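Please check this:
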Amino acid sequence: MMRNTFRRRGPQAMQVLALASLLLSGTALAKMDDSTVNVKISGTVVANGSCTFTGTDPIAVEFGDVIINDIKDKAYKQSLPYTLSCKGDPGGKAIQMKLTGTAADFDGTLLKTDAKGLGLSLQKDDKAMALNQWVDIDPASPPKFDAVLVKQKDASFQNGQAFNGSATLIVGFN
């Protein structure tokens, strides 16, 4: 009768036994059933900031009755009321605004009105600003914009003559 016996024969026998154990355990692990679980990851990527003006109505600036000889030294100055709300990350870009419109025929720095010889100086924080030019702003403290009536030298107007002008206020990330 033959007996199966293992005899210790030195370090090689231990290595063979350890290798056989690893191979058998690997096989046992390979036969285990796979178990899966779904992982749901959610969040909001804010890659860009956004700014919006509150309200949908156009900004109306009313000068009322204007005495022609008093159009000087900012006698007719009206604020442009607006509310700006910004959120998100501008991604290192500057937040800027500009007032766009058609320049007056007699002075390219003024906004044109429909009354010949009458224009509007657009001002940011009491300083004249160039029409159609971007200016940096701090959305936490938006600038104050004003419109100031400017008359062309020697321009004449009729009593009761109405005037209108229009511009677009734009905010952007540049």
Q: What stands out?
A: The longest strand covers residues 118-124. Helices lie at 11-30.
